Amino acid sequence: MAMDCPALDGEPLVEAREGLARLCVPDPKRYLRPDGVYEPAWAPVFYNPRMAFNRDVAVVFLRAWAKLRGVDEPVVVEPLAGSGVRAVRYALEAGAGRVYAVDIDPVAVRLAEINIEVNKVADRVYLAQGDANAFLHTLRSKKARVHLVDLDPFGSPAPFIEASLAALRGRGVLAATATDTAPLTGTHPAALRRRYDVVPGRSFLEKEQAVRILAGYIIRRAASREYGAKVLLAYYADYYVRVYVELVPGARRADKSLESLAYLAFCPKCGIAWYASKPWRPGGCPRCGSQPQLIGPVYAGPLCDEKLVDEMIRVASEASWLSNQARTLELLRQLREECGLVNPHYRVDKVASVLKVNMPSPRLVVEELRRLGYRATLTHFDKRGVRSDAPPDVIYNVVWRLSPSNAG
User: Fold this and answer.
1) Is 281 known to sit in a ligand binding site?
2) Which residues contact 334 (CB under 8 A, 6 or more apart)?
3) How much of the chain is in helix, strand and coil states, percent to nearest 5?
4) 153-170 in b/e burial notation, b at 16+ Cβ within 10 A?
5) Does 131 belong to an annotated binding site?
6) Is there a contact between 241 and 210 (Cβ–Cβ < 8 Å)?
7) Does 35 show up as a binding residue in the annotation?
8) Any known ligand binding at 285?
9) Tell me, what's the pLDDT at 408?
10) Which residue from 362, 388, 393 is spatially nearest to 375, judged by alpha carbons?
11) Which residues are noted in the entry as S-adenosyl-L-methionine-binding (predicted)?
12) Which pLDDT tens digit goes with each residue over 329-368?
């Protein structure tokens, strides 16, 4: 049955559905760009239906994490709540016992209030108008127990990381989305240096680079508070980076976490990337011997926790109400393949270009590497990408042999 949505400051609202939530949102037809695409930033309150996939994964994550950690009714903070959809879904779908939803915009708060009432979750969602960082510090001063802080800003999460870590007090999970992919991928090196305090650069592994820079930044900020930090899930989708990091208090754990950082070294000539723990002595390219370019520090560890992803796959398989169930499972299954392989991925097209041959199928490259006894998988970062523990000369040889240029 259709729902009648009230107007918001004279602006008409329309019904939208996402997961188990029924929502009142600004009418997308009123905020179309000249090319006919909906621009959520033009609406009176930001609501982006394309981020439903991000929210699907978030709901599945919290359900799986809470089960593995034995947490009943986890407490969630969403300090940039917007329309309130994420807070509502955490309450409806993830078993959250308490969700703090905060936004500085009074119009957004009024819309979030409508959506909270429509979905009958007012007993679990605490709504407030205020500054995100100030609210997070208030939670810390009150010593409120928080299990998850979810940062989903328009742009960079960097301005909110410190306050989020303060609210968590070294226990729980910080989930962060970054849509400022131009700096993170090295297109805007000055902004990358300013926001994330790294030596900037642009590699041929732009998306993996972006994920590892954000994860590394959170680990360093956590360590400055003497918190250890473990990456539980990290991925790139559509136009954003998403990272989930679990915190544990203790200076020794912080020191241990810092050991997972390195510099991303890459050779533009050969298409090879590796991690250099000593940037002042990174070593030459294993193929041509030339000095590499460096980006970092970045996170150089696994992209996910295998037990967590297994549980997430189980949860997602049973959650038929997810807006993007098939896509969620596809991502999780691919990440499960990548969990144990930490080496930067290879772009098969780049390797083929260096060898001056046509690109073979990345899937065939993976199959051949496995036949040779190496671990190998495709990567969610790039359809042309392959991740493996095989040495560079083996990968080059396989690409050469499988190239259509050498068929027959």
Assistant:
1) no
2) 377, 378, 379, 380
3) 40, 25, 35
4) beebbbebbbbbbbbbbb
5) yes
6) yes
7) no
8) yes
9) 59
10) 388
11) 55, 86, 103, 131-132
12) 999 999 999 999 999 999 999 999 999 999 999 999 999 9
Question: Rounded CA gap, 85 and 349, in Å?
Answer: 40
Domains of the chain and CATH, by start:
13-308 (3.40.50.150), 345-407 (3.30.56.70)
CA atoms within a 13 Å half-sphere pointing along the CA-CB vector of 49: 19
Nearest to 93 by CA among 304, 297, 316, 302: 316
Under-70 pLDDT residues of the chain: 1, 408
Q: What is the DSSP string of 154-172?
A: SS-SHHHHHHHHHHHTTSE
* φ, ψ dihedrals at 71, nearest 5°: -100, 120
pLDDT tens for 150-200 read 999 999 999 999 999 999 988 899 999 999 999 999 999 999 999 999 999
pLDDT given for residue 279 in this prediction: 77
pLDDT at 73: 96
pLDDT, position 38: 87
Place of tokens 């400022």: 180
Structure tokens at 10: 């004279």
Match 């030339």 to its residue by tokens. 290
Cα distance between residue 352 and residue 335, in whole Å: 25
The answer to whether 382 is annotated as binding is: no
Q: Parallel, antiparallel, or unpaired: how do β-strands 125-129 and 148-151 relate?
A: unpaired
Look at residue 406 in the predicted model and tell me its pLDDT: 84
C-alpha distance from residue 149 to each of 100, 139, 159, 182, 328 (Å): 9, 11, 14, 25, 21
Is 103 annotated as belonging to a binding site?
yes
Q: Which of 95, 55, 74, 64 is nearest to 306 (CA)?
A: 64
